[in-house]
Amino acid sequence: MKKMKRNIALAMSGVAASAAISLVAAPAATNQHYQLQCSTYTGGSLGSYDGGATCTGAGVWKVKVDCTVGGTLYSPSVFSLGETQSTSAGPCWWGVSSVQVIEIPA
Q1: Are 104 and 77 in contact (CB under 8 A)?
Q2: pLDDT tens-digit profile of 55-86?
Q3: What is the number of other CB atoms lying within 10 angstroms of the CB of residue 50?
C-alpha cells in the first residue's frame, strides 16, 4: 500500500511539472514570405493542451504544434486576404513544447 501511494505521488508530481512547462508562453512567430504579423499561444489542461496562432495579413499559412511527450500536429491551412484569423492544433496530452507558423507559398 505504501508503494502505491508513493507511485501515485510521483505520478502527480510529474503531472504538475508537465503543466508548469506547458504554460510557458510561446514566442511570436517570425515570417518571411508573406510578411504576416503573428502571435502564438498555448492553452488547455491535462489531456487537452493545444497550440495556435493569430495572424494578420494576406497569405496562406498553418500552425505546427510539437507536443511535450512526442508527436507533431498541424492545423488546417488558413487562406487570408488581409484580415486577422486564428487557428490551432491539438490536443497534446502532456503539454505543448513549441508552436510555429508555417507559411505555404502560392
Answers
A1: yes
A2: 999 999 999 999 999 899 999 999 999 999 99
A3: 20
pLDDT in tens, 29-54: 444 678 899 999 999 999 999 999 99
Cell for 37?
504579423
- pLDDT greater at residue 13 or residue 91: 91
CA distances from 4 to 7, 10, 13, 16, 71 (A): 5, 10, 14, 18, 30
* Residue in 30, 46, 32, 14 with CA at minimum distance from that of residue 99: 30
Euclidean distance between CA atoms 96 and 46, whole angstroms: 11
**Domains (range + CATH), the chain:** 2-103 (2.60.40)
Grid cell digits, residue 81: 486576404
